[in-house]
Specification:
One of its GO terms (molecular function) is glycogen phosphorylase activity. It is built from 28 helices and 29 strands. By secondary structure, it is of the alpha/beta class. Bound molecules: pyridoxal-5'-phosphate (PLP).
């Protein structure tokens, strides 16, 4: 069995299992095999956390030595056996819902954050996709993921002494990444092609093993491609629209073709963000070939089993490509199919119901995803509302409240974010399998003493500070020519960070809406907190600004300059090159995690969830997940109960939020941390820590998230898919073509209202022009007002008007409201469809 393209060496037969161990990224969270990699080459392992690289760089001599070392062999055998047991063990899925997802889920995403040694991500979206995959592996959910193998990925960051961001794009040699070429049974390397204007792009396929799941990766760096094309998959989010379109075509079209080529016919296709929407077109096209059907039938047949998850908070966040670019690239792709570039543009232009091909002159990937999907979801309760608002234009004349977007709040893969100390404590309290269990079996840590919990915090904080000192020594100390005394130098390096001091962490993308400068609104006030003799604060920061985001870079610089003020030196550190490795250190060690995005811009936010398992507390804007999680007991919220309607005037909000943030720190966080009882423990703080760990850790885990996707989305979608057999889909298309012909002639005629005893009875006449009456629903709608909440009452069809046979009378009785508050509306009704997603036709009484 050859796993790798470039076999690093012939391993001693007795150690051959190291290949598959090193290629299963499970080591990135499981840590069982750490001892092996450290034994092979401690330095490489410690500095890269890349087991595959370790295996590739260890000397033959060392290998031979270990092959004779009984202790190593014992550990090796143990790990091989444990891995084997893991592969064959029962899981939640295999025990409780085996087979219900049939051929499983194809999961598409532009980025995956699985480990710092596989740098195929830029931030939250990728980390979420990585955590989703790891939790799917834990639970045994049959997911196969598809992504791109970037040769350079997102930029790597350093800062110069002035605080300017420097960007580097080191080359990721795929042979040194923990991935292997995807081969067919004959050992042939799998390749797929995607037609581009005037040439075919050849894509190489790779495989990353993520426990029980696989991540397939495509890259265009095939020597037979033209030089320019070899770089399509080099950078992530480079900012060039044409390159972006090329990447999205490679991912969506190439990805679907690859699955087909290796005979995987997923039952569900899940898009994590609209970037990968071309996969749904390609899915429909290939279905069409298999079933000899027209494109519209293919679209209708596949739709119920396509899920679109959006993470965007502003409409400007959608990818939109101009018509000429789409035409150029769609011609070669779609030639020989029934789908015209015009029709493709229409599918990405607005909600289309039939074969019309009028379009708006550009292609919006979110609209395309909506037109191809059967279900849609946002990623937190607030984000559901935001999603309804930004998708509203796709549903002309539909109120935002009725837009069919659900939500699944994101979660983090707990075993990837816990520290050795917290892992030990949770194991003691709740057993080994705790992160795979249903949520209801939460386990308060009643048997764990305050002493033990506080010792855990101290150990974690000390390790973070140790890590920071090491990292900062190599980071910016040498740069600091301005510091002349040794003390100043040490201070500038952050080496004065203190193991016992309340440590606040702030790490995220440096971009305006995240407001990384909120704490700097009143520098003097912050200085006072940092320099308080008895109750000091220290701050650890990290984050990258997108290379084109000059505002974001400015914000980094501000922090760097602030940290240079002599009185705060050694109390603030900025860690360069924020990545998964830095994140995992920070979330283990900090006492308080700060997140202060501008409401309601944070779709969900996940970084704060990562501190929960480690006993860190959150101080956050009441936004994203925190708006669901926060109570007085578990942490602190800035501007709780804010509603997202009151968005305007953000400058004033910034000022108010900053004031509130300072107040919470000064009056609540800092005193509580330093308020020790006679045992020397901060009792109130510990209470809060326990509440946060107990109430939030399991809820905001990817375990909960993946179960929710399975139970609330995938399983019902599989069932709906079954009802959409090819003939049924064909019938639906026919029927709705007819309905559309009649629709423009529909109208309401008379409306009547009679009132008695506080009730009003409304009667309306509707003319249906031959649309079968059972396909129509008439409703009476009143918006929320001082007379009551929003109501939506079904109007009963009472009788058909004699005459044409197309007139019907509808009626309902509702609590009285003033004239004009109730409005009748008429829409389609069909249990087979997800309405209004699949057909937004609606008529309001004028
Ligand atoms: C968790 C994580 C993120 C996402 O953080 P948010 O600020 O909550 O969106 C981004 N980058 C890295 C490296 C992370 O680990």
């Amino acid at each position: 069995m050859t796993l790798a393209a470039y076999t690093p060496r012939s391993l001693p037969e007795s150690l051959a299992g190291l290949f598959s161990l090193a290629l299963d990224l499970r080591w990135s969270w499981h840590h069982g095999s750490d001892v092996l990699w450290r034994a092979l080459e401690a330095e490489t392992w410690d500095s890269t956390k890349n087991a595959w690289l370790v295996l590739n760089s260890v000397s033959g001599e060392r290998m031979a030595e270990l092959a004779e070392d009984p202790e190593f062999l014992r550990q090796y055998q143990q790990q091989i056996q444990a891995h084997d047991e893991f592969i064959h063990a029962g899981t939640w899925y295999s025990n409780e819902c085996s087979g219900s997802l049939e051929n499983g889920i194809a999961y598409f995403c532009m980025e995956y954050g699985l480990s710092e040694c596989l740098p195929l991500y830029s931030g939250g979206l990728g980390v979420l996709a990585g955590d989703f995959l790891k939790a799917s592996s834990d639970l045994g959910v049959p997911v196969i993921a598809v992504g791109l193998l970037y040769q350079q990925g997102y930029f790597r960051q350093a800062l110069n002494p002035d605080g300017d961001q420097l960007e580097f794009y080191p080359y990721n040699d795929p042979t040194m990444l923990p991935v292997s070429p995807l081969r067919d049974e004959d050992g042939q390397w799998q390749r797929v092609t995607v037609p581009f204007p005037g040439r075919d792009i050849r894509l190489r396929a790779w495989k990353a093993q993520v426990g029980r799941c696989q991540l397939l990766l495509l890259d265009s760096n095939d020597p037979r491609n033209e030089p320019g094309d070899r770089g399509i998959t080099s950078e992530l989010y480079s900012g060039d629209p044409e390159k972006r379109l090329q990447q999205e075509m490679v991912l969506g079209i190439g990805g679907w073709r690859l699955l087909r080529q290796i005979n995987i016919q997923p039952t569900i296709c899940h898009l994590n963000e609209g970037h990968c929407a071309f996969a749904l077109i390609e899915r429909a096209l290939s279905w069409q070939v298999d079933h000899q059907a027209d494109f519209e039938t293919a679209r209708t047949a596949n739709r119920p089993t396509n899920l679109f998850t959006t993470h965007t908070s502003v409409a400007a966040g959608f990818d939109v490509f101009p018509e000429p670019l789409i035409k150029l690239y769609a011609e070669p792709w779609l030639s020989g199919t029934q789908l015209t570039p015009q029709r493709l543009l229409a599918l990405g232009g607005r909600n289309v119901t039939s074969s019309e091909s009028q379009h708006t002159g550009s292609l919006n990937m979110a609209w395309l995803a909506l037109n191809m999907s059967g279900r849609v979801n946002g990623v937190s309760r607030i984000h559901q509302k935001v999603t309804q608002a930004i998708f509203q234009p796709f549903f002309p004349r539909w109120p935002a409240e009725d837009i069919p977007a659900g939500y699944v709040t994101n979660g983090v893969h707990t075993p990837s974010w816990d520290s050795p100390e917290s892992d030990a404590i949770w194991t003691r309290a709740c057993g080994k399998d705790r992160w795979c269990k249903p949520l209801l079996q939460s386990c308060p840590m009643t048997d764990i003493s305050d002493q033990d919990l506080w010792a855990m915090r101290l150990a974690q904080r000390s390790r973070l500070i140790h890590y920071l000192r090491q990292r900062l020594t190599s980071q910016h100390c040498e740069h600091d020519a301005a510091a002349n005394s040794e003390k100043e130098q040490t201070a500038a390096c952050g080496l004065l960070l203190d193991n016992e001091t309340l440590t606040l962490g702030f790490a995220r993308r440096f971009t305006e809406y995240k407001r990384p400068d909120l704490l700097l609104k009143d520098e003097e006030r912050l200085v006072r907190m940092l320099t308080d003799r008895d109750r000091p604060l220290q701050i650890v920061l990290a984050g990258k600004a997108h290379p084109h985001d000059s505002r974001g870079k400015q914000l980094i610089k501000r922090w760097k300059q602030f940290s240079r003020r002599p009185e705060v030196q050694g109390k603030i550190v900025f860690v360069e090159d924020y990545d998964l490795g830095v994140a995992s250190q920070l979330v283990q060690g900090v006492d308080v995690w700060l997140n202060c995005p501008r409401h309601p811009w944070e779709a969900c936010g996940t970084s704060g969830m990562k501190v929960l398992v480690n006993g860190g507390l959150n101080l956050s804007q009441y936004d994203g997940w925190w708006a669901e999680a926060w109570t007085d007991e578990v942490g602190w919220a800035i501007r709780p109960e804010a509603s997202f309607e009151e968005l305007e005037n953000s400058d004033k909000h910034d000022e108010d939020d900053a004031r509130e943030l300072y107040g919470i720190l000064e009056q609540q966080v800092i005193p509580e941390f330093y308020e020790l009882d006679h045992d020397g423990l901060p009792k109130e703080w510990m209470k809060r820590m326990r509440a946060s760990m107990d109430q939030l850790t399991a809820t905001y885990s990817a375990n909960r998230m993946v179960r929710e996707y399975v139970e609330a989305f995938y399983q019902p979608m599989v069932a709906l898919g079954h009802q959409r057999q090819p003939e049924v889909a064909g019938g639906i298309v026919q029927e709705y073509r007819e309905i559309e012909k009649h629709w423009p002639k529909l109208r309401f005629s008379a409306v009547n209202m009679q009132e008695s005893e506080g009730l009003q009875t409304y009667t309306v006449d509707a003319y249906l022009d031959g649309i079968p009456e059972p396909r129509i629903a008439v409703e009476l709608v009143a918006e929320a007002s001082e007379y009551g909440p929003r109501t939506l009452a079904k109007m009963e069809m009472k009788f058909a008007r004699s005459g044409s046979g197309h007139g019907f009378v509808y009626e309902c009785t509702v609590p009285a409201r003033p004239d004009g508050h109730y409005t009748p509306r008429l829409r389609l009704k069909d249990e087979r469809l997800n309405l209004p997603l699949e057909n937004p036709s609606i008529l309001w009484l004028q």
